[in-house]
Amino acid sequence: MYAFNYHKPATVADAAALASQHADGKLLAGGMTLLPTMKQRLAQPSDIIDMGKLNDLKGIEVKDGVVTIKAMTRHVTVATSAEVRKAIPALAELAGGIGDPAVRNRGTIGGSVANNDPAADYPAACLALGATIHTNKRAIAADDFFTGLFETALGEGEIITSISFPAPDKANYQKFRNPASRYAIVGVFVAKKGGDVRVAVTGAGDSGVFRQKDFEAALKANFAVAALDGKHQPEKGLNSDIHADAEYRAHLIGVMAKRAVAAAK
């Protein structure tokens, strides 16, 4: 690990100011991605801005059919929240399937969404549920937030403060996980609200999380597993790596989508 300067701001404004002042600095939320890459000397931030003292960024609120989760809320808190389980059971189940107990007890929703790992789970939930990402400067629709591998619409000095998820009528998330990391080789989140259906895919796209518009159209016409019969995900634009090639991932997207529809509640 390379040397760095350490900061522990007391307010979001202080954290944002530090982030703006240090172009090569990094915000530290749960540290589940940043710290391992630093230990491997794959990252060399000049400054670490630890958000651990920002207690006003922790907590969950459910109001008027919207679940708002503050950025520093840990995965285990989302997974075990009675409010989340009642309003959006699929979101609680997703959080309970992230990594292992150590990861779930340290990782945060804001850190996961801001990092936008192409195999992370929360980005699929954000897209499928039509979430809004709130920052210290603005509100960003999930469709506009994820811009590429490890890339988002966040600007300089911009910090996620919370994420709001409208509760769907039905939803489910199915993941084919890497047996070692528990990251998604393919994950599919399906959500239905009124006449609208959204299908988001993580772990497979070479540009990160994406919506499967053909599946969405079929499920809008008939929200049933049979509606996806004969529907196929093109291999173009999908990842190929040591875990699965593009052809296998394309097949898994169809399988996981059908499982999600069957289990949606």
Topology:
Elements: E1 5-7, H1 12-21, E2 26-28, H2 34-39, E3 47-50, E4 60-63, E5 66-70, H3 75-80, H4 82-87, H5 89-96, H6 101-106, H7 109-115, H8 122-129, E6 132-135, E7 139-141, H9 142-145, E8 146-148, E9 151-152, E10 160-166, E11 170-177, E12 184-193, E13 196-202, E14 210-211, H10 213-221, H11 246-263
Parallel strand pairs: 1-3, 2-3
Antiparallel strand pairs: 4-5, 5-10, 6-7, 6-10, 8-9, 11-12, 12-13, 13-14
Could you walk me through the main structural features you see in this protein, from its secondary elements to its overall organization?
With 265 residues, the chain is of the alpha+beta class. It folds into two domains: 46 residues, Uridine Diphospho-n-acetylenolpyruvylglucosamine Reductase, domain 2, CATH 3.30.43.10; 209 residues, Uridine Diphospho-n-acetylenolpyruvylglucosamine Reductase, domain 3. It is 33% helix and 25% strand. The protein contains eleven helices and 14 strands. The model has no long low-confidence stretch (mean pLDDT 97).
